[in-house]
Write a structure and sequence with these properties.
homodimer; Rossmann fold; four-stranded parallel beta sheet; 44% helix
């Protein structure tokens, strides 16, 4: 079944997040929360890093993908699932499909990171390449859905996906019950929407912030103009955040999110390296975006308790942003 | 007080490890144990990674350093502590000195990794450079001890250091009580000795293996010839393992260790990258040595439960072994 339309879909509610958590419990990792005394001292605040880079398939995307796949009827899933993705959602859906013994078809732009293409293939997915435009992706997907009868699972503009992504914040708030802020990256908006829905139910006083690369500022513009704006060929290093909001995620963000903050490419790279050096963990550039928003605006967060969702850890290790060349 | 002599020193016993654990409890991180279903499937064994890369100062060395510093009398410590170190022990002692509000002097070879020099300095240590030979290190240290009156804390040939390092294995065995093997890197032998002492007391049937780079195979040779052999200008990428065993660590290893396994430089680099990609954590080349020993000899470990101590995570991020050039 192919449709990009979300006319009949509604923003998920807290109950959906809670049900998602129960549904996916046996499938996902309950990821750890890391802290660094040095970072806290330098920023004069308490930072709590929810490590979704340790999630299965290396990104939070697995939560939503598993929730979607487990929510589908036998009838819907029997011919497989399909999606378009530049990376982590593709691998996540491929792996999630295995939970239902079904097949995944992933349409990926030719310029997707090699590490992410290989990941989807390693989980047994069939990867179909397309030109790196939104239209080419949608056309490619439509063709594959018509040909195979696979069920389309949108990477973010899908209630089951959004509800699944909200379970990371739910875990974090249950573990650290005195957060003042939660900051997440925002690309398509699935993580930010799910996080906001969960957080505002569990702790209505928590402030929710989306962090976005200045070079892919569609969420920032949409948030301030009040209408859905598109990302114009974004070139940010944060490859997971080059997508634009969808109708559902835009509604959820408008309703629940307190602010969108922008960061520069230099700030993203510095924040990424700082996390690698201090926490000794690999995060991908998209994960560094909320870190950058906090550490380069530390005065605003002084003395407060900040939860940051590190969205993923799938990095092209031959090509790090702070080294000048690669083989 | 300067002495490289260990004539009056004895191998620590289990009680010393236990007392060390109580002494350092409030100072160290109880590090997590990580696992990977994919790695387990690929190796047909259960691998448990004790993440000392998450230890304070980024390496297990902090355990021994804190135990030593806390064990010293007021009289001994009042003029500071001193050591020679190419890296992690220097930073660890520098940081440990702060627990007793005293000063650290670290003699380092000129070719030590920049990241390790900076680390020691960031903890307030005075770093004194010397030529990259054992003699130059010892001479440099003797001069600084005579000049300052600082107390010499040997990087590994010291009972309090060995006992402190043994606390990592103690934690691991308490958490996973069915290990068949523990594999650690071996350089000077402090970690392997301490691990062996703790493990053989707690679970006499556990097999203890030291993993060593073929390019710095002094422990392997000493183990097999039964006399203390020196490393001859070792050039291995595992910079933490270029040192030779000491008299104490040699005795402990002879007494408690079951085998020493050698790995090649290529195997070290492959194992390091594999851990980065699969576990999404940073480990330094020395940590990859026991990983390489296990995954490149997987038939020997088939079906067994293997504890691997990942010794540290201090990596020169501008210069990764799998990229061809650096800025």
């Amino acid at each position: 079944m192919y449709t990009e339309s979300t006319e009949n879909q509604k923003i998920p509610r807290w109950d959906d997040v809670k049900q998602a958590a129960d549904r996916i419990k046996g499938y996902i990792h309950k990821t750890p929360i890391m802290t660094s005394q040095t970072l806290n001292r330098e920023n004069e605040s308490q930072l709590f890093f929810k490590c979704e880079n340790f999630q299965k398939t290396g990104a939070f995307k697995y939560r939503g993908a598993v929730n979607s796949v487990l929510s589908l009827s036998k009838q819907h899933i029997k011919k497989g699932v399909a999606t378009h993705s530049s990376g982590n959602h593709g691998a996540a859906l491929a792996s999630a499909a295995l939970c239902r013994q079904t097949h995944a078809y992933i349409v990926m732009p030719e310029n997707a990171a090699a590490v992410k293409i290989t990941a989807a293939q390693n989980y047994g997915a069939q990867v179909i390449f397309c030109a790196p435009t939104l239209k080419a992706r949608q056309d490619g997907l439509e063709r594959i859905v018509q040909k195979t009868g696979a069920y389309f699972v949108h990477p973010y503009n899908n209630p089951a996906i959004i509800a699944g992504q909200g379970t990371a914040a739910m875990e974090m708030i249950k573990e650290i019950n005195y957060l003042d802020y939660i900051v997440t990256p925002v690309g398509g908006g699935g993580l930010l929407s799910g996080t906001a829905i969960a957080a505002k139910h569990l702790r209505p006083d928590i402030k929710l912030i989306g962090a976005e690369p200045r070079l892919a500022d569609d969420a920032f513009r949409s948030f301030h103009t009040g209408k859905l704006e598109n990302a114009c060929r974004p070139t940010t290093i944060a490859d997971g955040l080059r997508t634009s909001l969808g109708s559902l995620t835009f509604s959820a963000i408008n309703k629940y999110v307190d602010n969108i903050m922008l960061v520069s490419e230099t700030e993203i790279i510095k924040a990424m390296r700082m996390i690698w050096e201090r926490l000794k963990i690999l995060i991908e550039p998209s994960s560094a975006v909320p870190v950058a928003a906090v550490i380069f605006n530390s005065i605003r967060f002084k003395g407060l308790n900040i939860g940051i969702i590190l969205s993923g850890g799938n990095v092209q290790l031959d090509r790090l942003p702070w080294t000048q060349s690669a083989p």
